[in-house]
Structures are given as structure tokens and as C-alpha cells.
Fold this protein.
Amino acid sequence: MKSSGLYGEWSNNSTFSSVKYCVVFWAVCELALSWWRMILLSGLIFRISMMTFGKQMVVFQSAVTVLWSLRGIVVI
């Protein structure tokens, strides 16, 4: 089956590949930033929860961190 239409014409174009690389690069940067934000945020939440609630919140906080990291893997 022959590919036709906009995608078929664009796939042969060099601008399509450069746009594709830009999108991949942006996605990787966005993922790295979100991981960094998640680490900082979880550290802050961990400190606050240790001061206020103590040990019960540690379990909850680690579960939230695991769920966030799984969400990042699912996005890929």
C-alpha cells in the first residue's frame, strides 16, 4: 500500500525530520524538568510531613513518589 497525502509527502522532506528531532528533544527536556521538579517537590513534602505528621506520612509520600515515577514511564 502506497503512502499518500500530507504525511507521505512530508516524510521525504528534510524539514520533517528536523521537526521530529526538535519534538523529541523538547519531550526529553520536558521529562527531565518534570523529574527534577518532582524530586524537589517530594523532598519539600517529605520535610514538611516529617515535621508535622511523622512516620504515617512517610509511607504515603513514598507511595506518591512511586506513582509519579510510574506516570513518567507511562508517558514515554
Observations:
- Helices lie at 6-11, 14-52, 55-75.
- The mean pLDDT is 69.
- Residues 38 and 68 are 8 Å apart (CA to CA).
- The chain is about 85% helix and 0% strand.
